[in-house]
Amino acid sequence: MASATGENFFEGTEKLLEVWFTSSKEENKPDLRTIDRSEWEKLLKLVQCEIISCTQNEDMDSYVLSESSMFVTERRFILKTCGTTTLLLAIEPLLELVKEKCGFDNVADIFYSRKNFMQPDKQHGIHRTFENEVEHLDTLFKNGAAYTLGRINGDCWYLYTLDEVGVSQPDQTVELLMWDLCPEKMAVFTKETCTDGKDAREKSGIDKIIPGAKIDDFLFEPCGYSMNGLLPDGQYITIHVTPEPNCSYVSFESNAPQESYTGLINKVLDTFKPGKVLMTIFANKESTAKDCHKDIDTFLDQTHYNRIDHQFCTFKNYNLTYTYFTSRPVI
User: Fold this and answer.
1) What would the pLDDT profile of 119-154 be if each residue is shown by its tens digit?
2) Is residue 10 classed exposed, middle or buried when 0-12, 13-18 and 19+ CB atoms within 10 A define those classes?
3) Helix, strand, or coil here: 266?
4) Sheet harboring 51-56: ordered strands across?
5) What is this structure's pTM?
6) Which of 37, 92, 137, 272 is the most buried (most CB within 10 A)?
7) Residues 68, 113, 254, 287: which is the catalytic one?
């Protein structure tokens, strides 16, 4: 995940894939967690990343990767990769793997999303444009739906999903993508300042964002940081930091259910002090977070951030809130 110091560029912006599986033979009790680590390693070679460490609890297996993270539950697979990884090239082999090893023969739902890249020309051909990505996904799924939120001539966020209800259990995800970050905050995520992931976690205050999580983190050489945190009932948090001044970027993601995310968002903003933030909140109608979009305007009025774009969408059984905001200049 780390790049060399100086003006070398690293694309911190991640590609995020989430796939929910079902089986026509549920009596066999298929479980993605029965797949051997060696099989995941083969799959990740196609993506051009590797496993650094793994931690588990009763509901989820968590993997810190050389480029971000992977989470595996009984029937949900999440892969988040940064840099110039080729995430979409893994989808077809993934479908074959889970069918062969677990008996999952149906994709209940899929979510592929990302912010627009800082330097798309450095990506593999399939990822240089969202149009290319959609074309590839449409060859694998007959009922896909692609969306762009934000400004097509500025910062925006892309989403591809299936055009039908697939997940009926409570489901929610909050994600904050942050850039133009505080240099003093970013200095913590270098080997010059900290010795390892735990040191960076404690000095930055990351350990206070969601207390009680089972943490697995890693500080890269010479800089860069990745963290996965596990909570009960299949809940997780994940944070990734690219601290270089010319391309500073931090992502925060969690599926912990909350009626309001304003307290959590404040903790994240206080920890990293970003200049620009792109936030998305997914919540389906079964989730306790389904109405959390209603307090976003009030929340921003109480901060030193200006709302640039704000969109609210309803599709399938999900509410989706997209908000892009920037810090106000200090007078």
Assistant:
1) 999 999 999 999 999 999 999 999 999 999 999 999
2) buried
3) helix
4) 51-56, 61-65, 68-72, 76-81, 15-22, 106-115, 156-162, 144-150
5) 0.95
6) 272
7) 68
